[in-house]
Amino acid sequence: MSLWEYANPVKFLRLSERVLPWLWALAVLCLASGLAWGFFGTPDDFRQGSTVKIIYIHVPAALMAINGWFMMLVASLIWLIRRHHVSALAARAAAPVGVTMTLIALITGAVWGQPMWGTWWAWDPRLTSFLILFLFYLGYMAMWSAIEDPDTAADLTSVLCLVGSVFAILSRYAVNFWNQGLHQGASLSLDKEKNVADVFYHPLLLSIAGFVLLFLALVLYRTGTEIRVRRTRALRARQGAGV
Amino acid sequence: MMPELGKYAVAVLSAYGATAVLLIVLVTATLLRGRRVRDEMQRTEARGRKDA
């Protein structure tokens, strides 16, 4: 069995219908338990006070905002190289989910920044690259809506996705490239010494798992919807042509 | 039992509130559009079968 089998829309829909109930259930379970654990079951931080509780939504949302764009990049590359419609539709389906995650990260970051940094916003490298990523998401979605021919739209949005990846990478690594920004270093690292304290770390991991699963469930469901839109359009064109 | 959030209560609650609103809107819009599109496709398929 090959992964490319799922480039067939019928097989993709069959698989997604089998997997989706589990994904939804796991997403709700992880999100609810991770956020409840973080909100109700963890102490205040000695410097940040209770604002540390924002970490359980800000970090997972920011992670999914960046990785959502990378998922779109992979799907766009598959479209450009192998011309599988499902991959182009998956990229399209992911954009509204990614833009929501970006918006959540921006809002929660600003709400946290006001009491901690004394400002809602600063033209810091990570914040600025994140804002540009948000604008790229909006531009990507606008381009899909503006172009009537779906293949042309898929081609042009794939190119836009390649360009936007620069800002997704910058958003991810800006805290390592530049030291002059306000934003602190990554909250999670493979180096255990650099991670947040264990008492915050475990609920954070659970919350991240919830956001990842929610992202996957939404993208899978929305890709199915895009496939059906495409099929409906093709059927109508055939019926209109009297075939 | 609500934890003691102290002077940052507004910041923490508004961050969670905004996230809840955005996620609920996203999930609801996704499910509603999915259902509408599925119905439309089934109607179109049925019309095609009738015409044939």
TrEMBL record, chain A:
Signal peptide: none annotated. GO terms for molecular function: heme binding; heme transmembrane transporter activity. One of its GO terms (cellular component) is plasma membrane. The keyword Nucleotidyltransferase does not apply. The keyword Transmembrane helix applies. GO terms for biological process: cytochrome complex assembly. It is found in: Cell inner membrane; Membrane. InterPro entries: Cyt_c_assembly, Cyt_c_biogenesis_CcmC, Cyt_c_biogenesis_CcsA/CcmC. Keywords: Cell inner membrane, Cell membrane, Cytochrome c-type biogenesis, Membrane, Transmembrane, Transmembrane helix, Transport. NCBIfam families: ccmC. Belongs to the CcmC/CycZ/HelC family. Required for the export of heme to the periplasm for the biogenesis of c-type cytochromes. This is Heme exporter protein C. It comes from Pseudosulfitobacter pseudonitzschiae.
From TrEMBL, chain B:
GO terms for biological process: cytochrome complex assembly; heme transport. One of its GO terms (cellular component) is plasma membrane. Pfam families: CcmD (PF04995). It is found in: Cell inner membrane. InterPro entries: Haem_export_protD_CcmD. It comes from the Bacteria. The chain crosses the membrane at residues 12-32. It is a single-pass membrane protein. Keywords: Cell inner membrane, Cell membrane, Cytochrome c-type biogenesis, Membrane, Transmembrane, Transmembrane helix, Transport. Belongs to the CcmD/CycX/HelD family. Required for the export of heme to the periplasm for the biogenesis of c-type cytochromes. This is Heme exporter protein D. It comes from Pseudosulfitobacter pseudonitzschiae.
